[in-house]
Amino acid sequence: MSRRARARVAALLAPLLLLPALPAPALAEEGAEVTSADYPAGDEFHGSPGRPGDFTFSSNGSEDVQSYFYALNDSSCVHEAVPDEPGGSVTVTLTPRLAGPNRIYARTVDASGGSSACVLVYSFLVAPPSDPVAYFAFDEGQGDHAADIIDPDRGLDLSESVEWVRGRVGSAENPNTNPAPRLEGTAVRTDGRTDGEIVADHSSVDTSGSFSVSTWVKLDRAVADHVAVAQEGAAQSAFHLGYQGDTGQWVFRMSPEDEHRGGPREWTAAASTTSADVGVWTHLLGTHDERTGEITLYVDGIEQDTATHPEPWNAQGPLAIGRALFQGTGEYHWPGAIDDVRVWDRLVVDETVSDSETDSEVWRLANRPIAAEGRWMLDEWDGTTVSDATDHGLEATLHGDPLTAWNLADNDITFSPAVRLNGDDEYIEAPGPALRTDRSFSVAAWVRLDETGDGADTTAVSQAGTHQSGFYLGYEGSTGAWVFKMASHDDAATPEGSGWTHASSSWTAQPGEWTHLTGVYDHTRGELVLYVNGSEASRAAVYHAWHADGPLRIGSAQHGGSNTDHWTGDIDDVHAYQGVLEAHSISSVYAGFFPTAQN
């Protein structure tokens, strides 16, 4: 285990070590006894949430026990295990989903149907979620080899035709090769031809057991089956994570056996509920539960489909990126980019694993780290060109008078210059789209509002569609509140309020005062969140999010097909990110910095 991984485990274990010692289980007379080599009782931590273990139930000396009824972290005792003979023992596989203390409750039933009480019979401690067994960040940006972060002595070999491109997550911090800040790192891209090979020098996981695999993908085109990640056997890959051509869906599927065979094969597949998007970074996660045989597909952190795979087998060949093995030949090549491939020897669970967490691991994979898509500091002093502080090169244009826009406004909180807009026809426009407004994104800006007088809406940041903007961050005239809002559709006939979602502050905006606004769209949770001066002000459910493919505007918005809602006052330091800004990152943005990349 790397030094970084050991430090992370130590940090995660620290709060759990402060937990009180587990009480000794109180066994019912003639009740069940439990033992486990995978998760021994005592005060030491073992395993991981999502990693299965075997637990053996025995009769505590009674020869009349016909069956055991049990439950994990639940006193219902509803699951039955039947020994081969009365009074015998039976072993079951259980998968803990919580870090820290876990408890097994059980009761016994005899031949006459009599039952002991359902009581606590076994307690054990589960370590925090384990690191992946293989993790390829693809942040090298050059060369013919990609390292495994978990074990730098292992890696992937890249064929000559594989390209390095901008990634979705990661970091690129070399000031010589990347002078402008970037929080996306690099990724690999294959063109879908047969000579685009990315193959590991090792097998990553036992595919007959519980495992999970995730990646960020972007399809350039979708014409057939395309596989982003697979693990090879002798003739077949055990699993495919990628795109299914005949249905146009994302898919996680597993094969029934490793042999050459003609005709149709009974693969097990879990597919997305909607069609896959081409040209859009999308997070895919597939899981296989050896205890139930269930495979599950998540897309952008949202569970899509499950299916039961009856015959898992262990593919002992290499992990392959951008292709799969079918009938002994490399097939289903990926046309597009692939980033951040991770493989675990456990389930990645879609729930929090401790009371101290607010986000599940599935959520974090799909929404963190964030990707900087643009930052306009608005500290120009003349002209109409407005610089983008990231390396996206989204230089914006001031539509207004430079003599009154620049050199008149100063942010007295961050002590930085700002732009002043007249509220009539002035605004700044960056070529777009800067953001995918139908995926998780975050925008932030410092604003100072002049008295509006007429109760009109006025927008600090937006991104235009044809008739409406995909989002509006600014001031709501009818309530006098700060607001982050979305139209339900890009429809000129849909009036505001009809299916719109508003996250509004519960207090009145104060004209003349510098205020920091952050708007977050959490696609996984289906929520809009408004932060004012770094604190959460409002949260609202979103049922219709769509992609506004027009320019990003500072100081105006698209409404009813027209550029309107012009800002009256000053605006400073506008940030735009793909992904969800959380409290720590918002504090960095508030202070005028790029947030640090976080896993």
UniProtKB/TrEMBL annotation:
Gene3D superfamilies the record matches: 2.60.120.200
Keywords assigned by UniProt, alphabetized: Disulfide bond, Signal
Signal peptide: 1-28
Chain intervals for the UniProt region annotation (Disordered): 170-189
Protein name according to UniProt: LamG-like jellyroll fold domain-containing protein
Organism in which the protein naturally occurs: Nocardiopsis terrae
Domain named LamG-like jellyroll fold: residues: 209-351, 439-584
Highest taxon above the source species: Bacteria
